[in-house]
Structures are given as C-alpha cells and as structure tokens.
Amino acid sequence: MKTLKPEIPAQQPVVTGAEAFPSAEDAHDVGTTESVVRPDTIGFPSHTDTPEGISPGPDLARPSRTSGTTRFWQDRRTRGLIAGAASLVLFAIALWSAVNQSPTPSPSGATGAATPTGAATPTGATTPTGGAASQGFAPAPGPALSVLRVIGADAGLAAPRGAVALPNRRIAVADTGHGRLVILDREGRVVRATQASGLAQPFALASDGRSIYVLDARQGTIKRYNIQGRYSGELLHNPNLLGDGRGLAIASGALYVANPRANSIAQFALPGGKLVRTFTSPGGAAEGDHYAQPSDVAVDPEGDVYSAEVDGYIKMRQSTGAFIQRWPIPGFVTIDPVRVLPLGPGRLLATDPSGALLSYVGTNTPTRYPLLLHGKTLTNVEPLGLDRMPDGNLLVVDTLGNRLLVVHPPQ
After folding, report:
1. With DSSP H G I counted as helix, E B as strand and the rest as coil, what are the percentages for the chain, rounded to 5?
2. Which of 106, 141, 325, 396 is deepest in the core (most CB within 10 A)?
3. Sequence ranges of the chain with CATH classification 2.120.10.30
4. Which residues contact 363 (CB under 8 A, 6 or more apart)?
C-alpha cells in the first residue's frame, strides 16, 4: 500500500527584525543622525514571533535540539518580560532610597549643606549669591526719599562707582566703565575727562579738598589729581594691598583702603603715602571682631573706622582696630558693595544695592528708604556710591542708570 504524505504549503519568507529596520549606515544615507534601535536587541518580539490569536501549527513549528530550559531563556518574549520586571525592581529601589535619604531641612527651610558665607573665589569676588544678609537684617520700612536733582544723565558715564563733592561746587566721578576720572559741574555737564594718567579700573575716590585720590583696582595703584581734574602723579603702587581694592576713605591726613581680596584695611599717611598699618583678623578673633572681606571703609570725625563686610555687617572699630559694635546689612558681592557714610554720633547711612538707602539711628534695626523721582518710586536703580553734599543733601551714584542723584536725607 502506498503511504500518502500530507502536502505542506510552501513557507512564505518572513521579514526579520534586522531586515525590517535599516542599518546605521542606511539611516545616515537618508539624512538622519539618530541611532537605529532594532526590536530584537532590547527584548521585544520580532516579526518572526507567532501572530496574536494563532496557535502554532506544524508549518510554524521549528525543530530544536535545545532543552526546554534553554528554549525558555532564549525566547525573546520571555527575555523582554524579565528585563521589564528587573527595571521595575531597580526603579522601586531607587525611589525608596530617594525618599529615605532626602536631606533634612535646615531651620531656614533650605536643604543640604550651606555654602560658607562670603567665601572668596580666586579673584577675590564672593560667591554669586554673595553670602546671605546677616541673620539680624530685618529693616523697618520707611517713607520714600525724594530725588531733588538728577546729575550727569547725559554725560556719557558708564557704570560709575563713586563720586565726591568738591569745594569748587563741582563733582568728581569715578567713571569705572570708561576707565577715567570725570569732573562735572552742578548741572551735570562734563568739565574735564581725564584718561591720560592711564587709569584702568577706577573703583573708588576720595578728596581732602585740595586733591582727588583715585583707587585703580586693576593696577593696584592710587593716583592723585588736583580738584580741577589734572593729573598730579601716582601716589602708591602696591598690588598686594591695593589690587582689587573696593573702598577708599580719607581722614586726619591718612588714606584708608578696604580690600576684600587681601581681607584687610590698609592705612597710608599723606602726603607721601607711607604705609602706617594694616588691619586684618588676628588669630582667634571673636566672631564679631574678625574681618570678613571688607569692601568699603569710612572714618568719622572721632577717628573710628567703619567697614562693610560680606558676612552681612557694618563693623565699627577704634583707630587702633579694637572692635566696638556692628550693624546688620543686606548681603552683597564685593563687585557691588554696600557703601557706608557716618553722619555723627549714633547716626549711620548705608546703601542697599537692591535700590534703597538704609538709616541707623541709635539702634541695630535699620530703616529702609526707597527713592522717589517725579512722584514714582524708583525700581530700576542701583545705588553703589554715597557722599554728602556741602548743603547737607546726599549724593548717590546710580551705577545702573549711569547717573548721580541728589537725595534729601532721612529725618
């Protein structure tokens, strides 16, 4: 008897995962730069797997000599399920770790370790945040102070950092952005602009009524001019004590320079410029007594020295350097320091670089005064210079507005 064999239909060619997706070379040929991912490389079923809802028949079954265990691990669908389950387990572990190891909030609400206040960068500037204001800085709101006049708005100033009133009714301005000393009349017109002396970064200036002294922070020098603005010569060249200096004051025949990079206040005798002494933190200094990158300096008629420092305080010391007391101020970076102006016993003014003036009268709690111009409170203003006019009004340098403001002082 002849045995009949069932007729098996010819198997249709099947497009595999590698053939269904272009290679990396083909992908670049069509202009894409994305990587090509094939399904069979990440555990997903390829086009050769059994279609959904169809049981494998004899024409789809493939003989295999492998064991059932080996076939189990080689099956792509199984590998995909196992990979997915492993990913879920790893995600759960990571989530548990994040929840149970999150930083504990600090009392101020911040998390993580705090950056040291006022920590210096290699150039002497503070951290971008400049260190927070002192914990005691909570100013009381005060009424707006009227801007009586605007000076120099059309003088072509660029980021001025300081100005002083001169006895000849003129004003000397450290035009920092242009690297020059500018003399203005009372109406704000330019009388003289001096660059011949080679100023690079005039950052602060002071006058004794006979001469003008300009601190060049980049060159580490102090240059001298007469009150008409004519160059008289270089008084000092000392990059160690003057380089990156920020504040300059004159009192009792001496110049005082605040330098945050050197962490010191240096005193020089006039007229020759001899170094008298350098004030800095002694070893084991008490918390309130130590120097913390002094960035401005002022001296009152009694010879007491005031310095604005990045730990958030104005500190008052005797002429010998002995600590007396301190007042809280807003945080700042040394490139935009708080400026200090003592007005007499128990009275002190300072700038708030965010756009106001601060007044301290017999107390550690300052009053914050915004500035008012033409009936509107100024919001786009940056007071980074402060001096007193002969008539008692205040001369405020608005660095952001490239101008000077004559302001009525607080009562």
Report:
1. 15, 35, 55
2. 396
3. 140-407
4. none
